[in-house]
Amino acid sequence: MNSxxxxxxxxxxxxxxxxxxxxxxxxxxVEDDAMLVALELRRGGYDVAYERVDTAAGLNExxxxxxxxxxxxxxxxxxxxGIDALELVKRRDLDIPFxxxxxxxxxxxxxxxxxxxAHDYLMKDNLTRLVPAVERxxxxxxxxxxxxxxxxxxxxxxxxxxxxxxNAPDMHVSVDAKTAKILQCNQxxxxxxxxxxxxxxxxxxxxxxxxDSLEGAKKAFELFATTGEVHNTExxxxxxxxxxxxxxxxxxxxxxxxxxxLHSRSVWRDITERKRAQEEIENLxxxxxxxxxxxxxxxxxxxxxxxxxxxxxxxxQWGCQPxxxxxxxxxxxxxxxxxxxxxxxxxxxxxxxxxxxxxxxxRDAGYANLxxxxxxxxxxxxxxxxxxVQIREQQRERLQESESRLRQIVEKNVDxxxxxxxxxxxxxxNPAAELLLGREADExxxxxxxxxxxxxxxxxxxxxxxxxxxxVTEIQVTxxxxxxxxxxxxxxxxxxxxxxxxxxxxxxxxxxxxxIASVSHELRTPLFSIKGFxxxxxxxxxxxxxxxxxxxxxxxxxxDRLTKLVNDLLDVSRLEAVQMELELEDxxxxxxxxxxxxxxRQQAQQKSIPLTYSESKAPLGIKADxxxxxxxxxxxxxNAIKFSExxxxxxxxxxxxxxxxxxxxxDQGTGVPAEDIPHLFDMFYQANGSHKRAGGGAGLGLHIxxxxxESHGGQIGVESELGMGSTFFFVLPVSADKKPKIDEPExxxxxxx
Length: 753
Hints:
five-stranded parallel beta sheet; about 25% strand
């Protein structure tokens, strides 16, 4: 079934509710494995549409055809590996979350893949981590995309503002309020004065004024220092070649949050042409008929006396011609200007342009001249500056929001995360790191880290955990920025369990080798013996009937040994697989002990060992599997006989305390070395590390006894001192719901010195 059909099949399956749409590109050569990934995502609440590819050409074609939310790649594909796919995506400069999935990848390979750019890796036998990993990577990808969009928008806005600022028709300059030195200027000013920007910035603002206007400029600056603004002050600037420029000066202030003036923002409007035109108007009997700017004359009673040809659209908008009254607003503005004998500015929209009219009163003549200049570009620049301030504020809020989301993601990370600054002091500690180090963030932040770190490949160090135990930690150091400053992100990954698992695996392999050697030895020895006896009898080399009977008896004993070994192995297999079913019944433990000792008395008599039972006064009725419990008693008493010297007694005791029955088998034998005691109940283990003890045996009896006792809800243990004998004991509950309260949960061991 191809990947396209698989997509349709998944979409057509009934759903109880709509999930989150998710476009997934899967690099996988096995269709069933790809479907398992898709189904796992669907169980996590996603409406999955996926496509499976297994070649570089297929991956390229899928990336060209559409966009994908996430890429999930098998690390090992016959013709095209997950690492190859990662490199291909990186070469295409695509920011798509990339997760590796494998059934065989090792820890070192996974770390190298993450370092190469993979966002996460999972094992195929543990896909439960898939949905959280996808959610995390989709969130991280969205944060990255938002940051890029915000940065791109900010750069574009700043570029537009810079273009508008530099190309504004008026000259703009920012001046330090304390030193009166120029901080910055636009290109219009540079072009107008003939200086380079470097020659202007840093000079006192008064150097720009013509000597004829220097006093006026200083008064304007003093007025600004007092009021914080200056409006429509006419002065003259000096070009580099010494010529003059007539300007109208407007000054506003830029303040900090406390209202203190940081610097002034001066706007010089070149009014040289206007001044020239005004002079011509004053000197000539009528206005020039040709002028690119609007020129009007309005009497104090509101009648329009003159308008040049440029005013056509304005007069049409006003609905008047020379000799008629202008709109009331303009008549009032001219009347106020004449009354107060002051220049004033009025703005007016004409068609799709904005004009600023300067009203110049000629009081003696009883009229005012109006000079209109197109300020559309300047207004756009001012609006753009306001928009830029708003955009920057929005970007700041979005950045804070992104930082907050990033902090939440880091705080929820299961690995410890510590961020240190350039001086090596701790800036941030997530909860996982607090738990790992056993210290609160307040105790760590602002202080040196306390242990050495190195850049590059991950390193392993031992850290004292909260309870003083050693925690093996893998450290990975990454360079980063934290709130705009250089910093290092230190990832702390607790690998104690992994190290212990590796050690356990090593011991398991050793145990496997011991198992093979032990079983081989225990099987071969009786088989060789049986074969030898039978060959002698078959070849007729033993004619004496008594000897023949002895050989057959010994062959039977060896066959019994084989049978016991096979039965023990079967018991172990059933117990390890939790397949042995107990046949519980009411058992009188005292009678069972006596019965077991009676069956072993002949074996004990061969070594002149007396078997003694000190029975509890209280009845010992329990629920148990009679046959299995007798098997435990037989193993313990047989061992006591086997490792006791001739004539040394073996004592068995029983007692009932708090609904718990304790049975002890006490011998005066050789005892057990201290180093062997913790392993006595391990499978195939024999004291002194030997598989050929004098007593024989496969080392299964004590292990089987332990598992049977545990199956009854009990526990088993030993106390021993080398050369002083041993006491093996087990504790059973009278009823199934009563558990023994003993310090160690499995096997009790004690070595008395």
